[in-house]
Structures are given as structure tokens and as C-alpha cells.
Amino acid sequence: MLFSGTVQIDAPRARTWAFLIDPDKVSSCGPGVESVEIIDAANFKVRAKVGVGFISAKFVVNMTFAELTAPDKAVIKASGQAPGSAVDAVGSMLLSGPPEGPTTMDWSAEVDISGSLAGVGARLMEGTANKIVGQTFDCIKAKLEG
């Protein structure tokens, strides 16, 4: 599945960048995120509960910053497991706009889910993913613009 979009954030680019590459800060906006373990500057582990339709799973996801070009571009790779399901993803963001803001974030994510969650169907999964993305970006905007 491929997801993408553009988000306008009324905040300076450097502050937006610092927030978005901080796993603790971003995870505070992720619905279902239970914990974040920072391994080193480029690697961290996230534990999250995800529900699609009537199926719910607790994922442990290893995440790596594959590319960081401050304050403009980041690429992150994720690979995780839950009982009966697995996920692999690559996400990217590109920040643009004047240094003082507002900041425009163009983002994309390619997500591959297998196992019992994948069996739920693309329509349900896509709706759930869009809901989670919307809630996450609303929270990020509120924290950066507030």
C-alpha cells in the first residue's frame, strides 16, 4: 500500500525538523504507541497496538533513519512483528518553505503488511491507516503550532 500527502505546519522549519526526527516527540502523537526505546542516534524500537476492523495486534517495530539531510529530508525504514502478522515500511518526508515558516511537509509511506491483519482487506486497512495518519498529523500540528 502506498500513502502520501502534504501537511502545512505553521512553525519554523528547524523546529519542525527537530520535532519530526525525535522518536519520543513523534511517538507521543502516534495513536496506539505504547513505548519507544532509543537504541542509538539512527535506530529505535516502537511497541504499538494496532487495530483493523475486528483484529487487533501488538507490534514491535524496529525503525532506522536510512537518510537524514537536515532540515529538509528524512527517510525511515521500519520492520516489525506481531503474533500472526508482520509489517515492513519505508517512509519519507521532505520539508520546504521559508526558514521562519510556515513549513510544508510532503510525505509518503510504502507499507507491506502480511498475516492476519492483511487478511482484513485493503479497504478496511486503508481507512484505518488514513485515520491514524490524520490523528498523528493533527497532534503534531497542535504541538508545533501551539
Tell me about this structure:
The longest helix has 24 residues, at about 120-145. This protein has a seven-stranded antiparallel beta sheet. About 25% of the residues lie in helices and about 50% in strands. The protein has helices at about 15-20, 25, 120-145; strands at about 1-10, 35-40, 45-50, 55-70, 75-80, 85-95, 105-115. The protein has a single domain (about 1-145), classed as Alpha-D-Glucose-1,6-Bisphosphate, Chain A, domain 4 (2-Layer Sandwich). It has about 150 residues and is of the alpha+beta class.
Specify Rg, calculated over alpha carbons.
15 Å
CATH topology description:
Alpha-D-Glucose-1,6-Bisphosphate, Chain A, domain 4
State the fourth-level CATH superfamily: START domain
**Strand arrangement across the biggest beta sheet:** 1-7-6-5-4-3-2
Number of extended strands: 7
Question: So, CATH architecture?
Answer: 2-Layer Sandwich
Topology as a string of helices (H) and strands (E): EHHEEEEEEH
The percent range for strand residues is: over 45%
Give the low-pLDDT segments.
none
Helix and strand content put the structural class at: alpha+beta
Query: What oligomeric state do the depicted chains represent?
Result: single chain
Distance between the termini: 33 Å
Number of domains: 1
Could you report the average pLDDT, rounded to the nearest whole number?
A: 92
Helix content: 25-40%
